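Quick entry between incubations.
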Amino acid sequence: MTEQPSPNRSGETSTGTSGAVLEMDERTARRRLSDNQPTTALGKMRRNLFYMRGRGAVEITVVYALILLLFLALFLHNSDPATGFPFWTRRNFSGTLTQTIPFYALLAIGAGILMIAGEFDLSLGASLGFAGVVFIKTLNAGYAWPLAVLAAVASSVGIALVNGVIVVATQIPSFIATLGMSFFWNGAALYVNGLSPAIIAEPNSTMTNIMAGDHGWFRSQLIWMIVIGFVAWWFLHRTKWGNHIYATGGNAAAAKAVSIKPNSVRLLSFAILGLMVGLAAALLVARTTTMQPATTDARTLFAIAAAVVGGCSLTGGRGTLFGMIIGAALIGTVENGFILGRLPGFYLQLFLGVTIVIAATINKVMEGRAT
Amino acid sequence: MTTEARALVPDATTGPLLELRGITKNYGPNRVLDNVDMSVGKGEVVGLLGDNGAGKSTLVGIMSGVVPMTSGRYLWQGEELTRITRPETEKRGMETIFQDSALVPTMTITRNIFMGREITNAFGLMRMKQMDTITNEILDSVVSIEGIQSARQLVGSLSGGQAQAVAIARAVHFKRSLLILDEPTSALAVRATEALLNYLIQLKAEGVSSVLVTHNLHQAVKVCDRHIVLNHGRKILDVRREQTDVEELTAAVVEGAEGVRRYREGRPLA
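Done. Structure below.
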């Protein structure tokens, strides 16, 4: 083997992170990864963007930006509330967008993180109704509103954990297990509450302000979404537990081989879904002050659709938190646009369906090109 | 000298690292492993050979703690383990590199390498920069990385050989005492295979033992100190490298104990 002066070989110079040096490739000068990192801010940005490609967030953000541009164009064309498209108005932002999008986003975060772990919870909507009823009952029983929020969260986390234990213990696909449980939790909400809607007897103004207060162009829910979204991002992308969630969903056998316990990770993901559903229920009820049990089933599919639009893979292991929020924002914005355009309800369903399928297709194509 | 007698040749090393005695494994009525003894000495490369269905993968599963055995004894450095689970074997420094399932394709190289062993601060936050830097160093120094662009690449975008290289780099970085490589070269290009085999020899010098499960007898002969041949769940050959050759191993793998006997009658060993 020819002796080649190569003081940069990390085997000799680095402080022994790797043990021995492999005596090969001496003939060709190897490009070293350590020397190959971008140093300028622009280079780093380009690299980051390159490696975000196909992971769920970038593409859907572009699609969302295009939709926003379209709506903005329609608004500039005719912004009259009666005949035009009053999209970029204070009334629309505060009255609709910043209320629905955070609600969808919380549900999408819960459903999305669970999807990354490779599981579903189709009882999300039922759990939402149950948690809403618990929230109202606790308030009406005279407890302080933070306690009511805690109670709502506790009930939905409990529901999610029961679902999780069933899935983990029986090995039934979570799709089936939670489909069955969704009927159960709907029934349970009706059993606890009765058929008539639950109503907050005396809405607390502090609570309403903190949870759904009007701040001009936006509502408090938006702040909650940003705060919760950041914490969830930090958890999912920057902690080891987040890493274990990706590992479990991506390849449970490989995770097991490095002593990650896939079942514990699945239970953790179910609990996170429960947490998000409980918070979403509290935000929703604080605004509407009522909850009719067993009418929230449709939210399940909205949440899963938002997560899928945001780049979460149905087979697990793939998805980003930013993508989930953008997915929720996209669905909320399209819904809003159709109402503003005074189109009949079935058009909304039609277009929403097409949007979801197109977004999922784009994600699928980009997934294959991911680096 | 018969096959059975030669199987009893004691180990030259001082006390084996891993010793399995009388391992039997039944899947329902099927006996896939029948009273198999095997040991791996410190710094020894053991070739585990056999045809498809010979029981190699089951034995690997038992060694690494993911498959429970029906009966038998499991000794690690002379100490008998009663509960053999994957966390137990991992704690003792055993790393299994499977054909394809060792990594998560939807995660980056860095995250795969540190999976389950993340470098974190007190709050559980990962030190991403540090992990990226170490990953680059590992990939630069350990295995051939031709074609790998960045530690941030998804493992799913690597070729089979590159992914295999990452899995091996991970095992090496965490200074495992025993590597079990299940068909590690099946997806590798010629040069990468060469590099890997050289690497096993180097690791041996550092006292790292390995079990190499392979179909490729030429590779086995090159690097293994000892060869164990399984046939229909039974050990039919356990020989040191200087006592055998490719032809005998081929006969053992293809024709079983009968083949070994025929081979030795044709050309008795000195």
